[in-house]
Amino acid sequence: VRLHLHCHATTGMAEMALLKAIEAGIDGVDTAISSMSATYGHPATEALVATLAGTGYDTGLDILKLENIAAYFREVRKKYHAFEGQLKGYDSRILVAQVPGGMLTNLESQLKQQNAADKLDQVLAEIPRVREDLG
């Protein structure tokens, strides 16, 4: 059985999890090109490639070719800016709220549809209390 690790970069812990999993012998990990990575997405491919370069886990990927891909998708991403969530960078609140990346984007979308996007902070703070109440 092959093992593959899938993480979202919302809390800033995914990069460390990928590295530790690689060191432990995982068969594969998910990353995203830097211009499409982080927050709701996966850790950046280029950062992992650079981290592993020259080690026993060297990917053999060309960082300059990856930069060309990143440049292309940087422009593509601009076209879809209106669909991006509120969070930028890492958000430590998610460590407490424990909301997975896919659920987080859905939550934001639902709040926006209810004209309550400004309530995200309150909802994230309430989630741990609801979990505690429900056991």
UniProtKB/TrEMBL annotation:
It is an enzyme of class 4 (lyase). It comes from the Bacteria. Pfam families: HMGL-like, PYC_OADA. The keyword Isomerase does not apply. InterPro entries: Aldolase_TIM (IPR013785), Carboxylase_cons_dom (IPR003379), PCB-like (IPR055268), PYR_CT (IPR000891). SUPFAM superfamilies: Aldolase (SSF51569), post-HMGL domain-like (SSF89000). Residues 1-67 form the Pyruvate carboxyltransferase domain. This is Oxaloacetate decarboxylase. The lineage of its organism: Bacteria, Pseudomonadati, Pseudomonadota, Gammaproteobacteria, Enterobacterales.
